[in-house]
Specification:
single chain, 508 residues, alpha/beta, Aldehyde Dehydrogenase, Chain A, domain 1, Aldehyde Dehydrogenase, Chain A, domain 2, 2 domains, seven-stranded mixed β-sheet, six-stranded mixed β-sheet, 17 helices, 23 strands, globular, disordered N terminus
Length: 508
């Protein structure tokens, strides 16, 4: 650690790990800055775990797992309900931490926490979700029943864009099913993770069942290569999702890795264009476009292109961009200066490639916040599938419009894209909508709904390069991921019928 880093730590907060029910500094010497995106100032330093820290956290989770898996479902459920009440009571505090470190406006941060609470609600029904089946007299004097048992030590590696919601898609399900859970949050906005840890402790969760390991790639790779980890869940970019999937699978872990997205919104000629424009602006620029379910491509089917672009442009120019803590702000900054510059570079590339920059947010200035990580809503028209603004996941407030002649051309465009996360269609034609849901190749589909994030009792996940692994997150698939099936065949033989039988057993 350099003298400069030590001096900085002495004057600002240090965000630590959470192990064995308390904050823990770990042994790692490295730290990383956590910025206030609205001002550009460093507001904290976060510890970055060493491989020795990974060993410590996994050992703690393994030790806690033995007792937690033996804990009754009734007691687990009581703790889940207590966690739900604690989170509900402090959701404004969690939202404030998200806004301070991520930059999204407070209303958006509050919505994120609420969607996470819905998964907690679902997990509170774990006694019903874990019920097995029973067959009496499957064969003569033979009964068969099935059970679901926890997999062991589970890990969640979560992204910066939803520092509370995505962990809450994972940890309530894993813990309810009887597993220990280690959260490795993004080092860009790690504060919410520690608040969740405090809430689990307040709810009475035994020490070691929920841990927070702060860190970067070293921590991730340490977890993926650790023999004490049984399952890993990941949400992030496709490149890292592929790496997580391949690394975890190679070591025999169970893995679900959700990757990137390029979500399309098809607008048919019969659609309500005013509603479609509202939806495109909301889904494209909410949270500054830093959502895996953001609409990044509007597919305008002739002849609606000109009118639709004009409507989107007019609404985009009215968006109030500012500090997320200001109630008047509708869109905040991007998470870091590096990311802001990367997104701006994509706009430059699209401009150079021939796209029409209808609304240009590259030079946005916010009064009193000149050092913030600002990029205003940006609308590009006449985008082609060969441009990088179309092919790559930009993850910023950049909305591209691609024009096509027919419905069939629009569907082919979406299905040819490597990503298959979410998609939407805007139309008044029920037949077209039904045909679309049948033909489209994506995991989550919206009909006149721009961001079709499923309710907690369904599962979240995409197709193609948006998912590596076999199961989606939360819902019934979440229960399946965090448990293993076991079938028990029972026979209480009559002593008078005992004797060897070397024939293959049949169900007679």
């Amino acid at each position: 650690m350099t003298d400069e880093t030590i001096e900085r730590i002495e004057h600002i907060d240090v965000i630590e790990h959470w192990v064995d029910g308390k904050r823990w500094a770990g042994t790692g010497a490295r730290t990383s800055p956590v910025f206030d995106p609205a001002t550009g100032a460093v507001q904290a330093e976060v510890r970055l775990a060493s491989l020795a820290d990974v060993d410590t956290v996994v050992a703690s989770a393994r030790a806690a797992f033995a007792g937690w898996r033996a804990t009754s479902l009734s007691k687990r459920t009581n703790i889940l309900f207590a966690f739900r009440e604690a989170l509900s009571a402090r959701k404004a505090e969690v939202a404030a931490v998200i806004t301070a470190q991520h930059g999204k406006v407070l209303s958006d941060a509050g919505g994120e926490v609420q969607r996470g609470l819905e998964v907690v609600d679902f997990a509170c029904g774990i006694p019903h979700l874990l019920k097995g089946g029973y067959t009496e007299q499957a064969s003569t004097e033979v009964d068969v029943h099935s059970i679901r048992q926890p997999v062991g030590v589970t890990v969640g590696i979560t992204p910066f864009n939803f520092p509370a919601m995505v962990p809450l898609w994972m940890c309530p399900m894993a813990i309810a099913c009887g597993n220990a859970f280690i959260l490795k949050p993004s080092e860009r906005d790690p504060g919410a993770a520690l608040l969740l840890a405090e809430l689990w402790a307040d709810a009475g969760l035994p020490d070691g069942v929920f841990s927070v390991l702060q860190g970067d790639a070293e921590a991730v790779n340490g977890l993926l290569e650790h023999g004490g980890v049984d399952a890993v869940s990941f949400v992030g970019s496709t490149a890292i999702a592929r790496h997580v999937y391949q690394s975890a699978a190679r070591t025999g872990m169970r893995v679900q890795a959700l990757g990137g997205a390029k979500n399309h919104m098809i607008v048919l000629p019969d659609a309500d264009l005013e509603s479609a424009a509202d939806a495109a602006v909301s889904a494209g620029f909410g949270s500054a476009g830093e959502r895996c379910m953001a609409i990044s491509v509007v597919v305008a089917v002739d002849p609606v292109g000109d009118e639709l672009v004009d409507a989107i442009a007019a609404k985009s120019r009215e968006i109030v961009v500012g500090d997320g803590r200001d109630p008047a702000s509708e869109m905040g900054p991007l998470v870091t200066a590096v990311h802001r510059d990367k997104v701006r570079g994509y706009v430059d590339a699209g401009d150079a490639a021939g796209a029409t920059v209808v609304v240009d947010g590259r030079h946005l200035a916010v009064d009193g916040r000149s050092d913030g990580f600002w990029l205003g809503p940006t609308l590009l028209d006449h985008v082609t599938t060969a441009m990088s603004v179309y092919t790559d996941e930009i993850f910023g407030p950049v909305l591209c419009v691609v024009r096509v002649r027919t419905y069939d051309e629009a569907v082919a465009l979406v299905n040819d894209n490597a990503f298959g996360n979410g998609v939407a269609i805007f139309t008044r034609d029920g037949g077209a909508a039904r045909r679309f849901t049948f033909e489209i190749e994506a995991g989550m589909v919206g009909v006149n709904v721009p961001i079709p994030v499923p309710m907690a009792y369904y599962s979240f996940g995409g197709w193609g390069e948006s998912l590596f692994g076999d199961t989606h997150v939360h819902g019934a698939e979440g229960v399946s991921f965090y448990t293993r099936g076991k079938v028990v065949t029972t026979r209480w033989a009559d002593p008078e019928t005992r004797g060897p039988d070397l024939g293959f057993p049949t169900h007679a």
